[in-house]
Amino acid sequence: MTNYPEIILIRIFKINSLTFFKFTPSYMEPIRKNKEFNTNRRDFIWKISCLIGSAYTLNFPVFAYGKLSKNRKTVKQVIDLIIEDIPGAPFTRTVDQLRTGSLDQEVTGIVTTMFPTVDVIRKTAEIGSNLIIAHETLFYNHQDETEWLEEDEVYQRKLELIHKHNIAIWRFHDYWHRRQPDGIAEGNLKKLGWEKYFNPSTPRLLTLPEPQKLEDLVSHIKERFGIQQARLVGNRVQECQTIYLAFGAIDSRMIIAGIQEYKPDLILSGETREWETVERVRDGQLLGEKTALMILGHELSEAAGMEFAAEWIQGKTPEIKVSYIPSGEAYQFV
């Protein structure tokens, strides 16, 4: 067999709606001019297919367009399956948009995560998946606006990594919270072993069967979430039975309104502004109120919900492998 050390260049142009590949250099010219090569349409397509196969073997970039594999779906088909049971879907206004990739892209595997970090993108590519379903923003702001980031080196390199591996990234925030029950809350309650205490008439308020000391409750939460420490405002020996759920980032006015309405023993929070909810709880404690506050951090307070999302989505797309890759805690505690 003749060895061709030179690089083969493939130029593509249209002839009668067929894509014709013209090969250079000159030693490929006999193949192109061969009369037998052009005998008929079927033979022509067959031989082109052979050449494309050779191109794959030689590691040349070839763009193939055709029917989907039997057991695969497009990104759009996956999204449609996910939102089909969400009340009010599809929403006219939502941050749940496809941020990279194409809706027509064939899905080889799905990954759920909290934050689509560089590490999550790399691990997604490593396992052969190409659709990331992330709860939070890709580019550091709620709407994923990028004009202000055009000159940012980290933004540029992250985008290059996404394009290199042809990763589609869809945000799954509004729809997942709108699910009944809230997908994040259900995942967290399963993690904590408290799902049986959920009351759909008061979805943010959880009532435990028996009161227990705050320090014991905190120990249970830490053990279930696998954390060493969390921030706490309150009296560790006070009795707790009712818990206000404020996972993620909840507006302080909403949380304070919840304190006024329910007078919970504990607010279990993701993150909050320190000069707002934190100070309201501290002043309340100093004035004799019982409401305490435990701050988990944004990622931790919703990660179990995205782990549950992987299980939930797998039930809707049994033919596609769905994996959960945690983005993990960003902070080091020193």
Structure description:
There is one protein chain. This protein is α/β, with parallel strands linked by helices and 334 residues long. The chain is globular. The protein has 3 domains: 49 residues, no CATH class; 125 residues, NIF3 (NGG1p interacting factor 3)-like (Udp-n-acetylmuramoylalanyl-d-glutamate--2,6- Diaminopimelate Ligase, Chain: A, domain 1); 106 residues, Udp-n-acetylmuramoylalanyl-d-glutamate--2,6- Diaminopimelate Ligase, Chain: A, domain 1 (3-Layer(aba) Sandwich), CATH 3.40.1390. It has a 5-stranded mixed beta sheet with strand order 3-6-5-4-12. A 5-stranded mixed beta sheet has the order 7-9-10-11-8. Helices cover 37% and strands 19% of the residues.
Topology:
Layout: E1 9-15, E2 18-24, H1 29-33, H2 41-57, H3 75-83, E3 98-100, E4 110-113, H4 118-126, E5 131-134, H5 153-164, E6 168-171, H6 174-178, H7 183-192, E7 205-213, H8 214-225, E8 231-233, E9 239-249, H9 252-262, E10 266-271, H10 274-286, E11 292-295, H11 298-316, E12 322-324
Parallel strand pairs: 4-5, 4-12, 5-6, 9-10, 10-11
Antiparallel strand pairs: 1-2, 3-6, 7-9, 8-11
Helix pairs in contact: 7-11
Give a quick account of the main beta sheet: strands, pairing sense, barrel closure: 5 strands, mixed
User: Whole-number average pLDDT?
Assistant: 84
Q: How much is the radius of gyration in Å?
A: 27 Å
Query: What is the N-to-C succession of helices and strands?
Result: EEHHHEEHEHEHHEHEEHEHEHE
Low-confidence stretches at least 5 residues in length (pLDDT < 50)? 1-68
Query: Which structural class matches the secondary elements?
Result: alpha/beta
CA(first)-CA(last) distance: 64 Å
| Beta-strand percentage range | 15-25%
Query: For this structure, what is the CATH homologous superfamily of the largest domain?
Result: NIF3 (NGG1p interacting factor 3)-like
What percent of residues adopt helix (DSSP H or I)? 25-40%
- Under CATH at level 1, the class of the largest domain stands as Alpha Beta
CATH topology of the largest domain: Udp-n-acetylmuramoylalanyl-d-glutamate--2,6- Diaminopimelate Ligase, Chain: A, domain 1
* Side-by-side strand order of the widest sheet: 3-6-5-4-12
Give the strand tally. 12
Shape: globular
The appropriate CATH architecture of the largest domain is 3-Layer(aba) Sandwich
Protein name: Nif3-like dinuclear metal center hexameric protein
InterPro entries: DUF34/NIF3, DUF34/NIF3_sf
Organism: Shivajiella indica
Family: Belongs to the GTP cyclohydrolase I type 2/NIF3 family.
